[in-house]
Every structure is written in C-alpha cells, then in structure tokens.
Design goal:
By secondary structure, this protein is of the alpha/beta class. It has a single domain, classed as 3-Layer(aba) Sandwich (Rossmann fold), CATH 3.40.50.150. Helix content is 28%, strand content 24%. Strands 6-5-4-7-8-10-9 form a seven-stranded mixed beta sheet, sandwiched between helices. Strands 1-2-3 form a three-stranded antiparallel beta sheet, with no helix packed on it. α5 crosses α6 and α7 runs antiparallel to α8. The two termini are 27 Å apart. The N terminus is likely disordered.
Length: 261
C-alpha cells in the first residue's frame, strides 16, 4: 500500500471493493479511493513499480533463499511481491489475503501466478499468525496490511507482531510497510521492537511517506561492512534492487566497521 488510525484487531477488516486505473502502461489497484494498493507494469509484470515494494525485499540483504524455504506475504495487493519473489527466488510462497475479491481481480487483471510454489490463504492475518501450522516456518515475512482508508496498518498490535516472530523460522527476517509521518508509526515501531527484542533496522522514508522496518529472529548477525557491501553488489546485479544504497543507509545506523543486529 502506498500512501494514506489503525483498526482494532477485535474488528474485522472493512469490506473493500477493488477497483482499477491505468496510466502510461502501469495498471493500479485501488479500494474505491485514490490510494494506490498496488501496481503492475503491464509489459514487465515482475518489476517492482512502487519503490517501497523494492524495499520490502531488503531481507535478501541478510538471507539467501533455497528451494526448500518458505516465504510469507501478508496482503496480496496487486501481487507485486508475489510475482517478484517467484521470479527471483526458488522458494515457495504463502500469501495471506483477507478479501477474496482482491485475489479474483489479481487473477483477472494482474497476472497472478498459478504455480505449485504459490498458495493463497484467505484469512485474517491476525488469526493466521496464531495458527500453529504457521509456527517456525517462514524464512521471511513481508507485511503490508492496509484497507481503503489507508490510515495505518490494520493489524499492528504487540500480539500480532509477536505472532509474526513466532511464524518465522529459527533464522528469519520480517519487513513491514509503515508510514513514517503518520501517528501510527511510533506505536507500530514500539510493538515491533518489543516483539523482536529490539533487533530492528529502518530503511529511509520514501517520497510517498512509506517507511520499511526490518526485524530479525535467530542468531545475532555480525557482518563486516565490506562483506555487507559485497552482498549488496550481488543483489544490485542479480535481483535488480538498489541494494548498495540500502547497505550504506543501514551501515550508517551502526557506526563502526561492521553491521550487528
């Protein structure tokens, strides 16, 4: 979700009817408002059109997915993260999407991949993370949960983020899309920090206000600045991501010759 008070987790999501727009070869998903819920370049469907979606893949700076790994996506949107992950990694992907109408419009207009490596669970993400079948399972979770009002994540409690921590494998990374200049940012960041024992990094805020937070589970990471920049170079060339810029920003948050988190 790119730019727009959090909904209590005791309440259901609003029933948002997906709508479309298209401009200059890019197809956009909306929920009946001007806020963009996702985008796809029609001629290059696996491209991450919205800059924040590229940042959601920043967990690749720390983990190299294998065929046996599983990745979780919370919030289907226009399917951008799903299409990209299936193209660039060998892992299987489970996407959690509350609204079946979003899945239907993705199948009709956003080239939703139909492959054995992909499964969509139509469920409230807050309940999904409580299901024991999802415990200690995912090497990466990408969390992008917004409704039509787009005033902050609709699932943002400490209990929810603790559930995300539990769903990660013994070593795993979560990325979350937040709005850096919105009142929801501080409470979300505090809940993430508490759920992940303070093991959190933040990428720089995007022009549209999106702020991606990374949270870590597993052995403490301690990598030299040189090693980290070399990994960034690999991502930049192999995954078509602006990873070197991310690496410099993250290293600036940990002064010294290494990145420890």
């Amino acid at each position: 979700m790119q730019r727009s008070s959090s909904v209590s987790e005791s309440q259901p999501y609003l029933v948002d009817e997906p709508t479309l727009s298209e401009l200059d070869g890019i197809r956009y998903l909306h929920f009946g408002t001007e806020w963009v819920q996702g985008a796809m370049r029609v001629r290059k469907p696996a491209e991450l059109v919205l800059a924040y979606t590229a940042q959601m893949m920043a967990w690749l700076m720390f983990l190299e997915p294998a065929k046996s790994d599983q990745i979780g996506i919370m919030g289907l949107g226009a399917g951008s993260l799903l299409r990209y992950t299936l193209k660039y990694t060998p892992a299987s992907v489970v996407t959690v999407e509350w609204n079946p109408a979003v899945t239907a419009i993705c199948r009709a207009y956003f080239r939703l991949p139909e492959t054995r490596r992909s499964r969509i669970d139509h469920q409230d993400a807050a309940l999904w993370v409580q299901d024991s079948r999802n415990f200690n399972r995912y090497m990466a979770l990408m969390v992008d949960l917004y409704d039509a009002d787009a005033m902050g994540p609709v699932r943002d409690s400490l209990e929810f983020y603790q559930g995300c921590h539990r769903a990660l494998a013994d070593t795993g990374v979560m990325t979350v899309n937040l709005f850096g200049d919105h009142a929801s940012f501080g409470p979300n960041l505090q809940n993430i920090r508490e759920a992940f024992d303070g093991r959190v990094l933040e990428l720089p805020e995007m022009d549209a206000g999106n702020r991606i937070v990374l949270a870590f589970k597993g052995p403490v990471l301690d990598v030299s600045a040189r090693q980290f920049l070399l990994r960034a170079d690999e991502l930049q060339s192999g995954y078509d991501l602006p990873a070197r810029r991310w690496a410099k920003e993250l290293l600036s948050q940990r002064p010294g010759r290494s990145l420890s988190v």
